[in-house]
Amino acid sequence: MTERVVRRYQDVKPGWKCEDRQYVEFTVNNPVTIVGFGLYGNSNPKSKLPVMVRIELINLTTKKAYGKNEATFDRDSDETIFRVNLSEPTQITPGDKYRAIAHFYDGLTTITYYGIGGCKICATDEVTFNFIKGYKKTVEEGQIPEIYYSL
């Protein structure tokens, strides 16, 4: 299977105060297998502690959680986006509503990059992602810039 990526934002800025939990809700029009998520990294050059995060995918229609996984990434890196895979790839159902969640363990001290110019609809020839809402009730800006998936 060829892995693909959907990118939600048109641009990126520094300075997002990443509180405990960041999320985005979405639906798809065709079955896809979610592999993981891209998360924005640290934008505070003074902080040297690693960022610890737990990700999960929740089917809001059935209330079932999938693929919880924990990861740590280094704040010293110049990388803007860090990839965190689910513990195992998860097939999702068209029409069901899903929430991708990133729990930041040190949220009070994490200042990250964040996406701006977010798209409500991201379409390819094979699948359309419809982003419904995110943290602070908007899909126009925030965390979780990428979703990694296969057909």
Automatic annotation (TrEMBL):
All residue ranges annotated as the PHR domain in the record: 8-150
A single Gene Ontology CC term: cytosol
Pfam family, one: PHR
GO biological process, one term: neurogenesis
Protein name: PHR domain-containing protein
Organism: Acrobeloides nanus
